[in-house]
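R.M. (postdoc): so does anyone remember the format we settled on? I'll just put the structure tokens first.
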């Protein structure tokens, strides 16, 4: 018995969907966000980092990253660093950073992807610094590779 019209349409529709899904990776490629954590202080720090998607309606839906990172100290020859390449899809995030070992140190940052519109990789830098006099608490700073 030859296939019915309905069976033929379902087969063609399934095949078309499969073929187009392969193109999504080529034409609809999403930019990725790489994260670099830098410690310019001569003490080891534990950085709590939370990235929340700005367009989510509830906290549970918004959490894209919630981790604590151990950052080695700046030994005078090299800065303590942790790199996480291609960690997340690059999109608008609210970034919250805090030091677990110095509870009063915390800050927030609004990350905006592809602010130049060229579609290259986005990079977010979270940095720990201490004022030059050395007596004050460390602080957290943020930078982007594009803006």
């Amino acid at each position: 018995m030859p296939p019915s019209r309905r069976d033929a349409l379902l087969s063609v529709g399934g095949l078309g969907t499969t073929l187009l899904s392969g193109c999504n990776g080529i034409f609809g490629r999403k930019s990725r966000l790489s994260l670099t954590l830098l410690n310019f202080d001569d003490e080891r720090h534990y950085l709590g980092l939370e990235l929340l998607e700005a367009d989510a309606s509830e906290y549970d839906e918004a959490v894209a990253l919630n981790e604590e990172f151990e950052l080695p100290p700046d030994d005078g020859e090299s800065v303590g660093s942790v790199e996480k390449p291609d960690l997340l899809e690059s999109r608008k995030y609210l970034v919250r950073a805090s030091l677990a070992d110095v509870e009063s140190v915390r800050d927030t940052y609004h990350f905006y992807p592809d602010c130049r519109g060229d579609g290259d990789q986005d990079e977010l830098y979270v940095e720990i610094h201490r004022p030059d006099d050395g007596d004050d608490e460390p602080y957290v700073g943020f930078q982007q590779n594009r803006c």
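R.M.: ...and that's the designed sequence above, right after the tokens. Also worth knowing: The longest strand covers residues 80-89. Confidence is low (pLDDT under 50) at residues 17-26.
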